[in-house]
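RETRY 2/3 - previous attempt timed out on the joint model. Re-submitting the same 329-residue input unchanged.
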Amino acid sequence: MLRAKDNPFAVDRIRQICYEPAAESWQSLLARLAAMDYRGAIVGPCGSGKTTLCEDLQTRLQKQGLKTQYLFFSMDIHTTWREIQRVLARHFDVMLVDGADHMAWLTWRALKRRVFREKRGLVVTTHQPGLLGTWYECRTSPALLERIVSRLAPDDFIPYARILESYDRCQGNIRQALRELYDLVGCSI
Amino acid sequence: MDTLTIQLEQNKTALRPGDVVAGTVSWKLEEQVRQVELRLLWYTQGKGDEDAGLVETMTFAQPSLSDQRSFRFTLPNGPYSFSGSLISLTWTLELSTRPGDNCERKEITVSPTGREILLQGLTDEDVKLPFGLKVPTGSP
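RETRY 2/3 succeeded.
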């Protein structure tokens, strides 16, 4: 049995991997976001790296001296308006809202109005475009999954055909594919 | 480059609940920091959500650039160090500076045997039902 802490696809190891923007440097991405007054959406399907990109963006904005706040919404996590107001009351330049499409429409409208009125930045992650102008569209590919796998595990640890199989079965959802590879590695030893 | 070191008494990393974990911490820093902190904590690793518990903290305020201090923690009754294929629970001592990203960790094992408990999958033989009943194996 491979111990969970030795599994190369354990969550804590996956978390250490930063987002790799396709065909655009971070410098260019940040310049584009600044030109959008720090208001834009990260759009992409499940498991395409939206949260990873959002977290990496927060780190980079903080390094630029900007104050940020982070709100997270999902199918299971529902933050009340009172809790949102508590976060809005804190000092920040850019509010990052992960999973904005899980918010109730009226809550989203109220949050957006409040942030815009105070002339602050607002970056959201969402599955579909429309909430804000798209700043970045997350996409996946078998090559991306292979690069992540090769960073997490030795190069010849898992054959490319097996990686491709996982990618196809999970319909491009990298997070799900990595979970599948966790089981594969965990059970094969 | 900053150097942080955790040295355990007799290099003892296998411990039992209620034992005392003691030793010395030392550091060599390039810049003055506000404090150096030693934490006793456990965390989980694996496939699912992570969990962690901070048990005790020892703070060394206004530290000099180079110093050595002793520490002593009493381990709680649990949780035990364990590993299965889905989850591992690890105990660690973590030394870090504030502000700063420097961090040094020393893993320890906490269990009644002093060894990490290994969780194995159960077989039909392991699952003994009363009255001679058998574990159902799929459709009839």
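Chain B has a mean pLDDT of 90. Closing ticket.
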